[in-house]
Amino acid sequence: MTDPRFFSPQGPFALAELAEIAGAVLANNADAKRRIVDIAPLDAAGADEVSFLDNRRYLDAFATSKAGACVVAPEFADRAAPGMALLLADAPYRAYARIVRAFHPAPPLEPGVSAAATVDESATLGAGCRVEAGAVIDARAEIGARCHIGANAVIGAGVVLGEDCVVGACASVSHALIGARVAIYPGARIGQEGFGFAPGAEGHLRIPHTGRVIIGDDVEIGANATVDRGSGPDTVIGAGSMIDNLVQIAHNVQLGKGCILAAQVGVSGSTRLGNFVVCAGQVGLAGHLRIGDGATLAAQAGLMRDVPPGAVYGGTPAVPATTWKRQTIALMRLVERKGKK
Amino acid sequence: MTDPRFFSPQGPFALAELAEIAGAVLANNADAKRRIVDIAPLDAAGADEVSFLDNRRYLDAFATSKAGACVVAPEFADRAAPGMALLLADAPYRAYARIVRAFHPAPPLEPGVSAAATVDESATLGAGCRVEAGAVIDARAEIGARCHIGANAVIGAGVVLGEDCVVGACASVSHALIGARVAIYPGARIGQEGFGFAPGAEGHLRIPHTGRVIIGDDVEIGANATVDRGSGPDTVIGAGSMIDNLVQIAHNVQLGKGCILAAQVGVSGSTRLGNFVVCAGQVGLAGHLRIGDGATLAAQAGLMRDVPPGAVYGGTPAVPATTWKRQTIALMRLVERKGKK
Amino acid sequence: MTDPRFFSPQGPFALAELAEIAGAVLANNADAKRRIVDIAPLDAAGADEVSFLDNRRYLDAFATSKAGACVVAPEFADRAAPGMALLLADAPYRAYARIVRAFHPAPPLEPGVSAAATVDESATLGAGCRVEAGAVIDARAEIGARCHIGANAVIGAGVVLGEDCVVGACASVSHALIGARVAIYPGARIGQEGFGFAPGAEGHLRIPHTGRVIIGDDVEIGANATVDRGSGPDTVIGAGSMIDNLVQIAHNVQLGKGCILAAQVGVSGSTRLGNFVVCAGQVGLAGHLRIGDGATLAAQAGLMRDVPPGAVYGGTPAVPATTWKRQTIALMRLVERKGKK
User: Fold this and answer.
1) How far away is chain B from the Cα of A202, in angstroms, using its nearest Cα?
2) CA of C21, closest CA in chain B: separation in Å?
3) Cβ of C185 and A203 within 8 Å?
């Protein structure tokens, strides 16, 4: 059961309803009318809760779980705990996501501006916005309908936010044009000047940055992540891209649609990622690179050259993943041979 | 001497008192009644100050220091500057820590809630709390006795803080149950949703996170570090764990007791660390791993597999440290041979 | 054209004026009186705008740009688009920087303290300061003339800021003495305690930190970067050093003058960098190292030993860059040979 201090599940839902929500097939002699009250992890779920299996590592938990129902791929159906209703889906994680969203939709936003917020009189707020205590919204900012501006967040002058955006506590946004349904997590920094200066022994000469940050619809920017504005060109985050905590996006970077950047990735200035590029944790990319559509970069990879579309790269300096794996094995064998001497 | 703008040392203490506080033995013909007024580094200390030596790199500074007294291991006693009183201890850094804590205990907390703070009427504050200007404490939060909530910090709805916690300036906490004597440094982000969604070309589908962050007693979370709440299971930080700045702890991660994570470490989702695991700076751990009790991971290591208890691992992909060292040497020799051709 | 929501260019300037500002030579049959109204990137600039070329990657854009004028090195002059006025300079990026600063100087600061700021009565503000809404300035802080304290920023007790400093939104500063013209970006954390404790199975024993952070003139500290105060010695950032986003500077670290640390670099405790050291992105340095003047550390390098002045190092563990390159090639050849078997 989810903690009532923090969560208030909708429902209950009958198994048949959940199957429809999930696009799943009810199996294992399940009672379609059985009522499910909440979601829960496999090892904690009870008879009136639904869970999921999406990783072979947890097959044992699946086999011993007391969950009343479970979303699972058909191939694992026969490993289920006795009596567990099954919701069979080819993409079980996605199916389960739909169920979680049914039980736990975003809480309704109670509109209003806290008396402890500071909103410049020239800023505009769309209908149904909520602005929490300590938030500061500067001159001429345009906040779309139903946006939620968190406590102590700061929205700079002229910033545009689309509808249904969430700006987390203590985040700051400046020099940015942002689409709809964008989530900016607590402490994220959007729109400050990039790391741009003309170096020299007589003193590094700062270059004022006159570009912006342009963020498409449905983007997420993680906690304490940083997205610098462009130096002249814009910094662009394509629609649907997911950026995790503590990621650095430098000035003039362009991300295509649906990119996924895990925690602590760093993208240097003017590098461009195509659509649906995946960067695992702590990947670093040098400046001015081109990473093709659908490329995947393994954790901690250090990219110093362009990557073609669809390629998988790893290592530092990064090479195709197959090469990286062979290098790793070759190095291991080299040591083994030396060990035998 | 410490800077009076920022510090007000207690004392003075006689050398005999310091020896007792530190659990050290006074040596080198020291006058037990000699009064010491403050602590100082070896190269800055004067005749009425105490310093310490814990690293051979600083033996020269130890030999020429003007410190009136010094905490040191017995083996280095004969390298002391002439006339320096010695406080001999087998664990000199720990002994010195006790002395520093005597001179510089946490300043007394002046209870009260700033008129510029925003505390929801349904939140509860224990006796002796101090809430600084701009802090926001949301509905039903329970703040234990003698907590110090920093300026512009944000405590979310329903959060529970044990006694004697410190929440730094501009930090934010939500969806969390926190023990006693926990220190959350400025800008740390606790409890936001993790990086969880069902990816797909038709759009990545965000999964609402219904777990919490559970933090044990005596934990420290560094500046601008991020600890995401669980997706269903909880994210758990065991008692006494020390987490440095800019560390990323993903959803569902579990840390045992007394773990030490240096700056910029990243722990991916659902990975579990045992007790007293040490991660040096910039280590990255993939998801769903198990790291055994007492394991040590060298700086920048990239963990892709489980690690047994007590093991020392390094490199990317990480291997036992002895193997990593031999790989490094083998690679160096390979280049040397090629160089000779 | 720069976005009028965010920028208001000065000017226009005649080409002759720009040449003088930039220290450049006007060429390509340019009309010295031609008026230029703003800056713009090569691919977006129009006939009344000036751009620059500083990277061979963009020679094609240079050859097809519609920019009215362009700052460029003499060697590329003959690659210019037809009709483009040229401003020839041996250091074109620096020359262009001067032009951008002419069009886009820092906006004039409108002095005043927001009614929604909290300034302790014992703090002092120099002439011409601006303090934004939600900022908190604690007891005895001394803020120099013309400082700009951003929204929801926090300046701790006793902190000293020189003239013309900028503290970004949501940044926090404590236990610090800061020079003139220092820029602290949004969310940066300056002066909190470092990661210092005596570890032990009976509990890690925190050591109070009694040092400070000393920051020289003209330093920049990036967004969400962290600079811990010293444990007894100070943490020192030399004049003119440029520190990018998400960088970690541990307790007792010393940086010389003019150092450049790119994003996500981590410097461990007590390590000292000389003057004009360059660390590329995600570099990690172990504790207690000495890095000589003018050394360069390649991206993701892991430094475990001292580095002599002027050296270039790369890899983990870091070695001279020439060695690292040969290691990389040797490893690649090892795999190629194996592949042929």
Assistant:
1) 32
2) 41
3) no
What CATH number did the domain enclosing C62 receive? 3.40.1390.10
Say yes or no: C195 and C86 in one domain: no
Chain pair B-C, CB pairs under 8 angstroms: 188
Distance from CA of B92 to the nearest CA of A (A): 36
Confirm if C220 and C238 have CB atoms less than 8 A apart.
Answer: no
- In angstroms, rounded to a whole number, what is the distance separating the alpha carbons of residues B313 and B303? 8
Measured between alpha carbons, how far is B231 from B211 in angstroms, rounded to an integer? 5
Please give the residue that has the higher pLDDT: either A255 or C341.
Answer: A255
Span A180-192, average pLDDT: 98
Q: Are B86 and B27 in contact (CB under 8 A)?
A: yes
Query: How large is the ipTM?
Result: 0.97
**pLDDT tens track for C252-281:** 999 999 999 999 999 999 999 999 999 999
In a domain, C151, yes or no: no
Q: What is the pLDDT of residue A72?
A: 97
pLDDT digits (tens, 9 = 90+) for A71-110: 999 999 999 999 999 999 999 999 999 999 999 999 899 9
* Per-residue model confidence (pLDDT) at position C341: 44
Q: Residues 6 or more apart from B188 whose CB is under 8 A from it?
A: B168, B171, B172, B221, B222, B223, B224, B225, B226, B227
Q: Tokens for C51, please give them.
A: 């751009």
Contacting subunits of B (3+ beta carbon pairs below 8 A): A, C
> Is the same domain home to C212 and C324?
yes
- Classified as helix, coil or strand, A317 is coil
Residues of B in contact with A133 (CB under 8 A): 118, 136
Q: Are A331 and B326 in contact (CB < 8 Å)?
A: no
Q: Which chains sit next to C, with 3 or more Cβ pairs under 8 A?
A: A, B
Nearest to B226 among A240, A242, A246 (CB): A246
Q: Which of C119, C246, C248 to mutate to test the interface with B (most CBs of B within 10 A)?
A: C248
Q: What is the pLDDT of residues C81-121, one digit of tens each?
A: 999 999 999 999 999 999 999 999 998 999 999 999 999 99
**Searching chain A, which residue's CA lies closest to the CA of residue C97?**
A207
For A187, the closest chain C residue by CA position comes to: C187
Residue in B91, B100, B244 nearest the CB of C208? B100
Residues 242-281 of A with CB under 8 A from B: 242, 244-246, 258, 260, 262-264, 276, 281
Scanning the structure block, which residue is given the tokens 């050290």? B24
**8 A C-beta contact, residue A312 and residue A321:** yes
In a domain, C43, yes or no: yes
Q: List pLDDT tens digits, range C155-205.
A: 999 999 999 999 999 999 999 999 999 999 999 999 999 999 999 889 999
Verify whether the Cβ–Cβ distance A134 to C114 is below 8 Å. no
Q: To the nearest whole number, what is the mean pLDDT of chain C?
A: 96
CA distance B99 to A96: 55
The whole-angstrom distance between C23's CA and the closest CA on chain B is 42
**What pLDDT is recorded for position B28?**
76
Question: For residues A45-54, b (16+ Cβ closer than 10 Å) or e, as one string?
Answer: beebbbbbbb
What gap in Å lies between CA C156 and CA A116, rounded to an integer?
22
Give the count of domains, chain C: 2
Residue positions of B annotated with a catalytic role: 251
CATH number where B232 lies: 2.160.10.10
Residue B221 has pLDDT above 90, yes or no: yes
Confidence of residue A339 (pLDDT cuts 50, 70, 90): low
C112: in domain:
no
Give the model confidence (pLDDT) of B266-318 as tens digits: 999 999 999 999 999 999 999 999 999 999 999 999 999 999 999 999 999 99
Owning domain of residue B90: 13-103
Enumerate residues 168 to 227 of chain B having a beta carbon within 8 A of any beta carbon in chain A: 170-172, 174-175, 187, 189, 192-193, 195, 197-201, 203-208, 210, 212, 224, 226
For residue C4, whether the previous peptide bond is cis, meaning omega lies within 30 degrees of 0, is no
CA–CA separation, A99 and A93 (whole Å):
10
What tokens were used for B324?
């990593």
